[in-house]
Structure formats: C-alpha cells, structure tokens
Design goal:
Chain lengths: 360, 246, 369
C-alpha cells in the first residue's frame, strides 16, 4: 500500500478510479431508485461514437474534447430512448437495447474507419472500449475531478428538488417546480458521471459502477442522504482497491478488477447488512424457530404433569421428543433458566418456577 | 358574496382523440367539502390535474379564487393517490411531510427548524407524531394516507385537492380523515376530493359533482345525489343502499 | 463478387435471421435487455469452455457457453427473489461481474491463444471464410456458416414446435398457466435459444452486436404489423436486409462489418419509426393535425348544444365570442366555423351560429361515448 504514495502511475490511477467511483456511486443511487439502472448501460455504450466523432471533427484527443463528445452522444441516446418510448409502442427495455447496440455499433464503425486512415492515430481511442486505466494522465485526472466535482456540487445544490423528482414528481409539479427540467438535469448529471469513468473501466463495464455501489449502499441504510454518501464511499473503495490489486498482481486488467471489487462489496452487503441482510434473516429465522421449540417443550411438560397425578415423576427426553421433536437441546435451555430439573439420567421434571412459567 | 374557491368553465381535456373531460362547468364555494364521483375513466383525476395546471386543457379554464392556478399556488395543496409513489423509497415520515414546505422554501434552500416544527405540528394533527422517524416502507395503508395528508396540511393552504383519500384505509383512519375534513371546513377551508365510495358521499361531504366525461350534475348533496343522476352517471349499474327510495 | 464475399454475406444473413426469431419474443415479452446480459456473460462461458475443451471450434464449447448464458438468467432471478434488489439492477449487477471474470481469465491464462477479447466481443466476419469445416473429406463451407445454419434450423424448429405455448405465454401468461402450459419452462427454453444463438454468432458478429440484431429488426417490424407470423417474417427480412446493407457499407468504408450491420439495423428502425404507416411519426403528425380540426368541430357542436335554448345562447353562439369561451384564436375559430359549415353541422346567420340537426346528432353522439 505504501506503493500508493510512491508510484506515480498507481497514484494517478487510484485517484482517477476514486473520482469515478464517488461520482457514479452518488448519482447512480438516484438512477437505481428511479429504476433507471440500465439507462446507465445504454448511456455508456452510446458514448462510444461520440468519442470517435469528437476526434474526427476536431482532430484533438484532449480529454475534455473526447469527454464532451461522449457526453453529447450519451445525452442524445437518452433523448432517443425517451422519444421512442413516448411516441411508439416500443417499450423502455427495447428502446434501451436499440440505442445501446446501434450506437455502439456505429461507434465501432467509426473507430475502425479511423484506424484504417493513414495517420493511424486512433490508438488513443479504443481505450474507451475496455478502459485503460494505466493510460490515465495528470490532465485526465484533472478533467475527471473537476467534472465530477461540478456534478456532485450540482446534485447537492438541488438536493431536495431531486428528492422530490425521485419520490413524487406529481406533487413536485403541483408545488410549482419544473419537474421536466429537473429530470433533464439529473439525467445530464448521470451522463457526466458515466463519461468521466469511461477511460478507466470502458463503456462495457461502466454500467456496473453506476449500479453496484448504489445497490450495496441501499442495503445498509434507509436514509437517502446516507445512501448516497455510502454509495460514493463504496464506489471509491472499489476504485482504489481495484487499482491497487491490479497493480500488485500480474496481468490483471484494472477495469474488470474494479468491477469485481464493487461486486464483492455488493455481495457482502446483501449478506450482512443490518436487518435486511440475508445472513441475518437466516439467523433470525433459526432463533425464532428455537424459541418456539423451547416453548413447546415447556408446554408439553406441563401437559404431561397434569395427565399424570404423580406430579413429581420425571419424564424422559425421548417421550418429549415424540411430542415435539428433538427435545434435548430445549430441555438444556430450560434447565439453564431454572424451569426444569434433571432427576436422573433421562428424567426431567418441571420446577415450581417452571410450572408458573408454563401456565402463563 | 365571496368568490368561489374553485371555478371551472368549459373545461375540455383530450388525450389524442379520446375525450376525457368535455365542456365541464363547476363551482366550489369556499368552506365546503365537495366529492367528485364517477365511474373509472370518467376524468376525475384529470379534472384535478387540469386545475393544478399539470395537464393542458384543449378548451376552457379553471380558476382558484378568481385567478389561474400558477398565481395561487400558495393557497392550494394536493394529495395524490397513495398508489402513485413507490413507498420503498428510502425516506422517513418526517421527511415526506417536510416536502410540503418546499414550495415555501423555493430553490436550493433546505428545511430549517421552523419547517421541522411545522411538520411535527401537522403530524400531530393526523395522529402520527410518534412515527416521525419511521421508514415509510414500514407504514400501513392508513398511515401512508395520513402522511400524505400531513404533507398537505403543512402547506397551510386554503384549498385542498385530494385523490381518493379514503381508498384502502382502515376504519380508524377513515374516521380520523373525516374529522380532519370537518375541522378544515370549520376553519373556512375548501376540500375537493375524488371519492370512490358512493355509500359515504352523503355522510362525509356537503356537495358533490357527478362526472362522466361531462359534468352530469353538481351541487349540494341533498339536491344532486339522486337516483336519476346516479343512473345518468353510471349508466344504471349502481345501487346505493339506504338511499331515499332504494 | 468473390466466393469469399458471397460466403460472408450468406453468413451475415443467416446470423441476422437466426437472431431475429428469438429476438421477436424478447421484444414482445419485454426481455430485451436480457439479451444484453446474456451476450456479455457469454464471454465467460466461452473462456471456461475453452479451458475445458481446449478447442475454440468445438460444439461442446458452444453448449457450455450457452449454459453460462442460461446461468446468467438464473442468477438474475435469484437475486431478484431476495427482494433486496430490483430486476433491472439485478441484471446490471450480474453480467458485468461475469464479464469481468471472463476478461480477467483471458488476460491471465489465455493471452494470445486465439481467444482475443476483441474477437469475442466484436467478431471479425472478414476472416470467417478462412475458417472452414472439413468433415468426411468434404469442404462444408465456412465454420460460421455451418454452425449458424444449424442454430437457425434449431430456432425455426423450436418456434414451430412450441408455437402455441410461445404465443399464449407471450400475450396472455395468466391464461397459459390456467391451461397448464408452463410459462416458466417456455421462458427457459427461450433463454436457451437466445444463449445458443448469441454464442454461435460470436464468431461472426461478436456477442454484443447480437443485441442489435435481436432487438432492432423485431422492434421495427413491431411498428409495421400486429400479426405474429408477419412480425417474425418482417423481423427476419429487415434483419437480413440490414445485414447485407451493413456489409456493403463496411466494404465502402473499410470498417467493422459487425458495427456496420448494427448501424444499419438502427437505420432500418429509424426509417420504420418515421415512416411506418399508421404508427410512424409522420403518420402520427398528420393524424394529429386532422384530429385537431375534427375535434374542434365536435367541440363547437357540443358547445352550441350545451347552451342551446338557454338564456345565454345568444351570447355563447356568437362567432366572435368563441375565442373567449373556447379559448380559440380568432382565425382558428373562423377556420373551424367554415369547416363545420361545409360539413353541414352549423349554419351561420351573421355573427350568430346555429346548430343543424346533423350538428346536434354529432354532439349527442360524441357525448354518448
């Protein structure tokens, strides 16, 4: 880990990945809440021709130029998705699929077209496909940080308006807020979050960075603010750990490693988090079942006592097991609590406190 | 004579070529409780949305205290249908009620102590004070409705539009809502509610509008809520028990 | 054209048709993005299959990879069933993870062994004619052509065989369950077909562009017809056409064939979106314009009918007051009045309008609806 501070490349990659993680985690929370998870997938695939066109039209490979191209294309893609769903009977998922694949295909055409040109300067562009974190430069980092910062600042500024948009847009409209404009704004922020990450993880995997941190964070909290903050933190964690891991090991491409770290965070969250976690559910289920069994054995002991006039005779665990299955562990619990006394090898009898408890 | 709280004239709304509201006229005097009833697809929700400026009418207009809605936002509060939001959203009861103050706060400003106090007060009015911090996903139907009502109350409006406020709530909540409506009326407020239950129209409301794309009838409940009008609205497929003559 | 070129186009068409068939059902069942998910995670399937079988061209590889595609669907459903993650998020969590594992495996263990990420994702149709299937001493043609033809045959057979079940469970799942068809089984069968087709096509067009061929042509066809058989045929036709057009575009630009094919499916969809009779944008615009005028005339008759015979009739029936009561601009009002007159709905005496019997009937009719 000390490498992190010495190694310039690693530092750049880690910082860049952190920036991407924070922005996509935060804004991804809104996307996931609004059921627009896969819109992120469509936007990132749609960004590809934007990058190529930006280069074709300006001849420049400056990060700001390419990112701007990516953003415009991504945004155009969203508009098309909205347009298609609003004006035809084609549903949202199909519209996303069309935009995603057609734009991506077109992007490939442009990329291969550029590649065949005599100046063969396309080399820098296909890193947008799968990401090439190692190729991140200082100026890329600055672009990412500034854009990400602006996006986050905007989100914080109109925080309550975005909450309205995500929760109850009709009500927001009745209050006089321009919900359509806010929708466009939020989508634009999402586009920005996505395009700044493309160089690091590539168009194919960027969708995961929008969804995974948000999905993980949602498991830990029921408050929107905390969910967004946590998602940002998880995104950064995935980004940094992915970068570090990928630099430590051999031939471990950074993009996929970051995504797997994010996925790991999701899995841990699903299993362990608070009251919703799957492990907790399992444990709680077992605890509840155990409680029921103990109560059943206590009740059975009382019933047996009342049936047999000799109130101080003990009953064997075997008999009790017949009545309510596997009584021994329950009997031990009851003994510990003082409700039951052991008379012999396998003879159990209610104590006075036990009897009062059972009669309740 | 004070201006009517709501005045709708010649209101016509169509989605594509389907007419949803045709040439609707109605008046809601101040300080009354009006129910809007009609079959499915009769345009009831659309009527509210058109008054609130959320839908552009093909013809006609709707005025609030003599002025268009955009100029009177402060005086109007909206309680949408419960089913129109996803109650799994990560937010608390208090948070939702605070949304009622957003109009007053305008852009960017966050709710402060004063807003929180107002929200708590509204929650008390609907009997939900102890649940202020509760996650909305853990609320029952009746509790959800109360939260929506509190959100509207906190706006301190003069006119309240409600979309099926009694739908799917328990008996206690229903009584509480009726109490609330009556109290609002006592304070001179006006309530217009889309109502789904014909059996309770006469008991809960002063006035009623029978709507089926066109306004069939509108006025005091005693005058207007008749067999004949109901038949014209629902096409002869209703029975209102305990009604005069039924 | 060289025989190589002909073969490439043949492969392209076969791939397109093979994709359009299951794709139609994906579009109808709102499962379009499942194709996206499957086509990404297939990379992992291919890698794992390669490790097991050792040979990229083996049919076992195909089957194994297809199984991974199916596993994706299962995983997504499992995730959904926990209740902790929504469906769309579940998809977006599963396929990038599987895809990433695939990429990492390739980078670490399969580098330079004829298993190149680019090839899997993007395909390279141009090389297909060189990879031939030689069996029993005879040249059966390019591997890709044989494989895809078999898969196409499977798709056609499966659809024909399970026609009733597919149709019913797509349009009326409740009825399907009631009748004892198992929609879940049909679903999994469909997913298996999608998976198999995607794997088969990876050689030619790469797995991602399979999405374009599976979704865009059926979507375009969906704007053109309501009939399921015609839908399938149109989807296949549009797919094939886009594939051919794409080939020639790529030829002209010297660019990626697969990318060009995807682009052309987009163009085809765009054309359908604009020009589809009835459902296209142009048709809709024309219809809206016409409806607006008709609607306005109907409104006029209703307005007049509403106030007819009442004290305010004289006021409400004046042409120059229509702008106030109906909120119409004066020239629009004039236009509507003229149209209504021509249709015999109203009669104008000076500034006052009078409803004709025909007009009254129109009004009554409109309100009765």
């Amino acid at each position: 880990m000390l490498d992190l501070f010495d190694d310039y490349t690693l530092r750049t990659v880690a910082l860049g990945s952190a920036a991407l993680g924070i922005t996509s985690g935060a804004l991804g929370t809104f996307a996931v809440l609004r059921r627009q998870s896969l819109l992120g997938d469509a936007i990132s695939h749609a960004a590809l021709p934007g990058v190529a066109l930006a280069f074709l039209l300006t001849g420049s490979k400056a990060p700001l130029v390419l990112v701007a191209g990516a953003a415009l294309a991504g945004f155009a893609g969203t508009l098309l998705v909205m347009g298609v769903t609003r004006t035809t009977r084609i549903k949202y998922d199909s519209a996303l699929g069309i935009v995603l694949s057609v734009f991506f295909g077109f992007g490939l055409v442009l990329l291969t077209f550029i590649q065949r040109r005599p100046d063969a300067s396309q080399a820098g562009l296909d890193r947008f496909l799968f990401g090439q974190a190692a190729g991140l430069l200082q100026r890329d980092l600055v672009t990412m940080a500034v854009l990400g910062g602006i996006a986050l600042a905007a989100m914080l500024l109109v925080w309550k308006e975005l909450k309205l948009l995500a929760f109850d847009p009709d009500y927001g409209a009745s209050l006089g807020f321009p919900m359509r404009a806010l929708d466009v704004l939020l989508t634009s922020l999402l586009v920005v979050a996505i395009v700044i990450g493309l160089q690091t993880v590539g168009v194919v995997l960027m969708a995961a960075m929008v969804i995974a941190p948000a999905a993980a964070a949602r498991q830990w909290t029921d408050r929107l603010g905390l969910a967004v903050a946590l998602a940002a933190a998880f995104g950064a964690l995935a980004g940094v750990s992915g970068s570090v891991l990928s630099s430590e090991a051999e031939r471990l491409p950074t993009g996929p490693t970051i995504v797997l770290c994010a996925t790991a965070i999701v899995i841990v969250s699903l299993l362990a988090a608070g009251r919703r976690g799957l492990l907790w559910r399992e444990l709680r289920g077992r605890r509840d079942r155990r409680r029921l069994r103990v109560a059943a054995v206590l009740a059975d002991l009382l019933a047996l006592e009342q049936q047999h006039p000799d109130a101080h005779r003990g009953h064997s665990a075997a008999v009790l097991s017949v009545m309510s299955g596997g009584a021994l562990p329950s009997l031990q619990v009851l003994e510990r609590r003082g409700y039951v006394r052991r008379l012999g090898e396998d003879e159990w009898v209610l104590t006075d406190t036990g009897r009062t408890e059972a009669e309740r | 004579m004070t201006a009517p709280a709501i005045e709708v004239t010649d209101l016509t709304v169509a989605y594509g070529e389907k007419p949803v509201l045709w040439d609707v006229d109605l008046e809601v005097p101040q300080g009354t409780l009006m129910a809007i009833v009609g079959p499915n697809g009769a345009g009831k929700t659309t009527l509210i949305r058109a008054v609130l400026g959320m839908v552009k009418p093909a013809a006609g207009q709707a005025l609030v205290y003599g002025k268009p809605y955009e100029e009177q936002r402060r005086r109007v509060a909206y309680v949408p249908q419960r089913g129109s939001v996803d109650w799994d959203f990560p937010t608390s009861v208090l948070d939702v009620v605070l949304m009622g103050r957003y109009g007053r706060l305008g852009w960017v400003r966050r709710p402060g102590a004063e807003d929180r106090a107002a929200a708590h007060e509204a929650l008390e009015q609907v009997g939900m004070s102890e649940l202020a911090g509760r996650q909305i996903s853990q609320l029952s139907g009746g509790q959800q409705q109360r939260v929506f009502l509190a959100r509207a109350l906190v706006q301190h409006a003069d006119v309240y539009f409600m979309d099926e406020p009694f739908q799917g709530v328990d008996a206690t909540t229903e009584r509480a809502i009726v109490e609330l409506l009556r109290e609002l009326r006592t304070r001179g407020k006006t309530v217009v509610a889309v109502h789904h239950d014909l059996q309770t129209v006469e008991e809960y409301f002063d006035r009623v509008t029978l709507l089926n794309v066109r306004r069939i009838a509108s006025g005091p409940v005693g005058e207007v809520f008749t067999e004949e009008n109901l038949r014209r609205t629902y096409g002869g497929r209703t029975a209102v028990f305990g009604h005069n003559g039924a | 054209m060289t025989s190589g070129q002909i073969e490439i186009q043949l492969i392209a068409v076969v791939v397109a048709v093979a994709c359009a068939l299951p794709g139609t059902f994906l579009v109808l069942r709102r499962l379009a993005l499942v194709s996206d998910a499957i086509s990404h995670s297939i990379l992992l399937g291919i890698v794992l299959g390669f490790f097991v079988v050792g040979n990229v061209n083996s049919p076992l590889l195909l089957v194994g990879a297809a199984l991974v595609g199916l596993a994706t669907v299962v995983l997504v459903q499992l995730l959904q069933r926990t209740g902790l993650v929504r469906e769309d998020a579940a998809i977006g969590l599963v396929f990038p993870a599987l895809f990433s594992i695939g990429v990492i495996l390739i980078a670490r263990y399969a580098d330079g062994v004829h298993l190149d990420i680019d090839a899997v994702l993007l395909g390279e149709l141009a090389f297909a004619p060189f990879d031939r299937l030689e069996l029993l001493g005879w040249d059966w043609g390019p591997n890709a052509l044989v494989v895809m033809s078999v898969i196409l045959g499977l798709n056609v057979a499966a659809i024909a065989l399970f026609w009733k079940e597919l149709k019913l469970s797509t349009f009326d799942p409740a009825l399907a369950i009631a009748l004892g068809f198992a929609p879940a089984a049909v679903q999994y069968a469909l997913m298996s077909l999608v998976s198999l087709t995607a794997v088969g096509a990876f050689d030619a067009v790469g797995s991602i562009l399979v999405v374009a061929l599976m979704i865009a042509p059926p979507a375009a066809a969906y704007l053109l017809t309501d009939n399921l058989v015609r839908l399938l045929l149109l989807a296949a036709g549009i797919g094939a056409g886009s594939a051919l057009a794409g080939y020639w575009l790529a030829f002209a630009l010297d660019a990626s064939i697969a990318g060009a094919m995807a682009t052309m499916t987009g163009v085809a969809f765009g054309l359908a979106w604009l020009f589809a009779p009835g459902r296209g944008l142009l048709a809709a615009a024309r219809r809206r314009a016409r409806q607006k005028l008709e609607f306005a005339q109907t409104m006029l008759t209703i307005h007049l009918a509403n106030h007819e015979g009442k004290p305010e009739a004289a006021e409400e029936s004046r042409i120059d007051h229509l702008d106030r009561h109906l909120r119409w601009a004066p020239d629009f009002a004039q236009r509507i009045v003229r149209l209504a007159e021509r249709r015999g709905l109203v009669r104008a005496s000076g500034q006052v309008l009078e409803l004709t019997q025909a007009g009254r009937e129109l009004a009554a009719d409109a309100l009765a609806r």
